[in-house]
Structure formats: structure tokens, C-alpha cells
Write a structure and sequence with these properties.
single chain; about 425 residues; mainly alpha; two-stranded antiparallel ribbon; about 70% helix
Length: about 425
């Protein structure tokens, strides 16, 4: 049974839903101001939603073209020199209606936007429109910045502020759902702005300025670069997914050969990633940690006789060290980042000399070995108790307690099978 959303999540969804209902009712009652412009931007947003890629690929904005179109409409003040009169509520209504229309095929296929993504889209468009439209209609924006290059700078600053607010909301939603530390989550969201987020902000600014000068014909011209960028990101995401699947399949070699229990590598990888997130590792560090956890037992293939149940935690320290070094040598031949091999090699070092990712894998691997075959919560508690007893010389106390918190919450990051 899925967990009930927490109060912050419900509050964000309620705010987005209230704004949406208010905007749709007001727009239906008053009618559209300049229906041609609204239709053109709505079509752009719908096409952007149709071109989205699956949310499961891990991208922060799977529909950047739709996001840029929504931001461009929120910051639109003129159309070919003619002043536009849409207000904040109309901006929200057009963005929501177009996004819903473009999402229909994805929803039918079971891969539509999540509730969090939909809420963020509404709040982002509303924030940008609230910052710009009242200033534009009152004439203050022209009075402050005129019609020169300062207008472009003002629009870009508004979009950067909007992106920052969206990053804060995204981090808050993740914090409420996972109870991971807010700081690392926000840091990852801000780092994500450097990539596709900067392209979305730049394109939204260019769209608003270009339509103000050249009219609606500027929409397809200035959206082509972002569309090409989106296609490039999609290819990159596909390559990254294939890369992870290849590593996961390679990690199963020890299971197929009978050296480890089925699912051991994926369990250790998922639990290690959750503990790493709890301890504040960044997204790139979590990826390296996940790869190392998947292949941490690859050195066992050098053994003539498998270790019973693959429980290397019960082997002498010298034998653990030898297996770790052999595993690191194998990993270096796979082409993964050098940091992955280093973590695999150092998982058998004294924990005081290990980097944090190696400490995490060492602890989680031992937990999975100790909890293997145990029934119910008692087996997990007994395994944790044994780890706590070993914090003096085998396992880092902070990692053990972080593991206990993750297990208590049950918020693991599953690793897809290869």
C-alpha cells in the first residue's frame, strides 16, 4: 500500500490545484484575451509535452520545450509591437490546458507526468507570471528598464529567480517524501539548472523577446535549438540507461556462477544509494557509489570454491583484501570511472582509512550477509545489532546509524535488473 503523502506535499498540490481551478474558471467566464496568441503558445506547450521522454529516465525536466513555452508565455508583453493583455490567470489556464492535452498519450501509456511535476509546472508558470504581468500592465517595467538591452536582462533574471524557486519546491517535495537531508537535495536541484535548466531559461527569454519584435512566426524558429538539445539529452539518457543495464548484468555474473545469492548485488546497490543519500552525497557521487556496490563482489570470481552464501564479511581480513583488489582489477577493465574501481579495492581496508562510499558498501554488504535468510524484523534487528557491536573496528558508527534510519523508513532506491 503506498504511503500517504505528507503535509508539505499535500500543501503544494493543494496550492497548485487551487490556482488551476481558479484560473480555469476565470478564463472560462471572461474569455481569452488575444485567442490567437494563446492558441499558438498552447500548441507549443502541447507539442513539448508530446515530445517528453519517460520520467523514469531520471531527468529533472523531461519536457523542456513545454517548460520554455510556458515561461515564454508568462513573460510575454508584446506581439509584433502590439501590447498583449493576458493576465496571470490566463497564463496559468493556457499552460495547464495545453499541458493536459499534450500529456494524454503519455497518460494512456502509463508514463505521464507525476503529480509533483504537474504541480511544479503550475507553480512555476504562476510565479513567473506574477513577477512579470502586473509590472508590465502597470507600465512600471518599461519605466524602469525602457526598451533597450536591460529588458532582456530583467527577463533573464526573472527566469533565473523562477528556476531557483522551482528548485526549492522540488527539493522540499523530495525531502517530504524521502526525509533525506534538504541541503544535498537542493544542491542537486541547483546543479541540474546548469544543464537543461539553463537552456530552458534562455529559450524562454528569447521566445518572449522574439515574439515581441517579430510576432508568432518567431516561435518555431527559436524553439528549434531547444528541440535539438532535447533530442541530444534523450540520446544521452538512453546511453546512460544502457550503460547502467550493462553494469547490472555484469554484476550478476557472481550470482549466475553461484558465488553470491540471487539479488545480492542489487540489494546492496539500492540500500547503499539510500544510505549515501541520507549522508549527503551528491547525485554524481551516488551514481559512482551505485556502480561500485553493484560490482563489489566481482573479485569472488577468482576463488576456486565459493564462499558459503557469498558472505565475505565472515572471511579473514587478508582474504577480504585480496578479493577486493582482484575485484578492482576486473572493474578497471570495464571502462567505468576510475573512482568505481578505487571504491571496490578499498572496501576491505580498515574503515578509518576508507572513503565514505567504501564505508557505506562495507557496512551494507555486511548487513545483507548477516540478514540473509532471517525471518521478519528480528533478523534485521539482529543484523544491525551485530554491526553496532563492530563499530569499534569494522564499521563506521555514522554509517551504521544512517543504515538503521533508512531501514526504519523503508525508503530504498531500487536498482532495475539488467
Amino acid at each position: 500500500m503506498p504511503a500517504r503523502p505528507s503535509a508539505p506535499v499535500l500543501a503544494v498540490h493543494a496550492l497548485a490545484g487551487t490556482l488551476t481551478l481558479w484560473a480555469l474558471v476565470a478564463t472560462w467566464r471572461d474569455g481569452l484575451v488575444d485567442p490567437g496568441t494563446a492558441t499558438a503558445f498552447g500548441a507549443l506547450i502541447a507539442v513539448g509535452e508530446l515530445a517528453r521522454w519517460g520520467a523514469g529516465e531520471g531527468e529533472r525536466d523531461p519536457a523542456p520545450l513545454a517548460s520554455a513555452g510556458a515561461l515564454g508565455y508568462a513573460l510575454l508583453g508584446q506581439n509584433a509591437g502590439r501590447t498583449e493583455g493576458q493576465g496571470v490567470l490566463q497564463v496559468i489556464a493556457v499552460v495547464v490546458a495545453a499541458a493536459l492535452l499534450g500529456s494524454v498519450p503519455h497518460v494512456a501509456a502509463g508514463r505521464g507526468p507525476s503529480a509533483d511535476q504537474a504541480a511544479r509546472r503550475v507553480l512555476t508558470a504562476a510565479f513567473a507570471a506574477v513577477c512579470f504581468q502586473p509590472l508590465h500592465h502597470s507600465g512600471r517595467l518599461d519605466g524602469w528598464f525602457g526598451y533597450g538591452p536591460y529588458v532582456a536582462l530583467a527577463l533573464l533574471l526573472l527566469l533565473v529567480l523562477t528556476a531557483l524557486c522551482d528548485a526549492v519546491v522540488a527539493a522540499l517535495l523530495l525531502r517530504a517524501r524521502t526525509r533525506y537531508p534538504f541541503g544535498p537535495l537542493l544542491r542537486d536541484e541547483l546543479r541540474g539548472l546548469v544543464g537543461i535548466g539553463s537552456a530552458v531559461c534562455a529559450t524562454g527569454t528569447v521566445i518572449a523577446l522574439a515574439v515581441a519584435v517579430a510576432g508568432l512566426w518567431a516561435l518555431p524558429v527559436f524553439c528549434v535549438p531547444l528541440l535539438l538539445t532535447q533530442l541530444a539529452f534523450r540520446r544521452y539518457a538512453a546511453v546512460r540507461t544502457t550503460y547502467r543495464q550493462t553494469i547490472t548484468s555484469l554484476a550478476r555474473a557472481t550470482e549466475i556462477a553461484g558465488y553470491t545469492k540471487p539479488g545480492h548485488a542489487r540489494r546492496v546497490a539500492g540500500l547503499s544509494r539510500a544510505v549515501g543519500r541520507e549522508l549527503g552525497l551528491s547525485e554524481s557521487e551516488l551514481t559512482v557509489l551505485e556502480y561500485a556496490a553493484l560490482m563489489h563482489d566481482i573479485g569472488q570470481l577468482s576463488l576456486l570454491d565459493p564462499v558459503p552464501a557469498g558472505a565475505t564479511a565472515r572471511l579473514p581480513a587478508a582474504e577480504q583484501r585480496r578479493i577486493a583488489l582482484l575485484g578492482g582489477a576486473v572493474v578497471r577493465q570495464t571502462g567505468v570511472p576510475a573512482g568505481v574501481a578505487l571504491i571496490v579495492e578499498r572496501q576491505a581496508d580498515p574503515y578509518r582509512d576508507q572513503p565514505l562510499p567504501a564505508r557505506i558498501i562495507r557496512t551494507v554488504n555486511a548487513y545483507d550477509d548477516l540478514a540473509e535468510g532471517a525471518e521478519g524484523a528480528d533478523g534485521s534487528l539482529n543484523a544491525l545489532e551485530q554491526l553496532r557491536l563492530g563499530t569499534g573496528h569494522d564499521y563506521h558508527p555514522q554509517v551504521v546509524e544512517s543504515l538503521a534510519r533508512v531501514l526504519a523508513r523503508g525508503c530504498l532506491t531500487p536498482v532495475p535488473p539488467g
